[in-house]
Amino acid sequence: MKKQIFLYFLILFLGLRNESSAQSAEEQNVSKSIDRLVVAMIAADREMLNPLLSDALHYGHSSGLVQDKSGFVDEVVSKSPLSYISIDREKEVIHLSKKTATVSHILTIKGKNPAGDPVNIRIGNMMVWEKEKSGWKLLARQAYKL
């Protein structure tokens, strides 16, 4: 009997733990927007990128370069200085406050430079997403060296 009670509480505890760490529906929507951004960057597709980005975008690179929306989109589409092969996210944390989401994660990026040489990057990243009528849009992003 004690064993059954212990198992019951163990299952209950694990279930509650999973519920508390589960993402809310809105956090999932933000995560899906990031997924779409990653796909658009790898595809280097202007039509996929534009609807995900705020017109007031402030895109900061770990090098210190800061771009607006058109500068960022032009760079991704031109595949220079980097053509993206994969962008993997880890340790992602999403916080919501009304119509704003902050996201922090570690990015592992694989790509090629214009000469075709492999490029591997591992950086920290902080994003600010803003909910608009058409969905979540990236308002700001700042990468930092690890």
Automatic annotation (TrEMBL):
Q: Which domain of life is it from?
A: Bacteria
Keyword Amino-acid biosynthesis attributed:
no
Q: Signal sequence span per UniProt?
A: 1-24
Manganese: is it a keyword of this entry? no
Keywords of this protein's UniProt record, alphabetized?
Signal
Domain DUF4440 stretches: 34-138
Q: Which Pfam families match?
A: DUF4440
The record ties this protein, via InterPro entries, to: DUF4440, NTF2-like_dom_sf
Q: What is this protein called?
A: Nuclear transport factor 2 family protein
Task: Name the source organism.
Answer: Aquiflexum gelatinilyticum
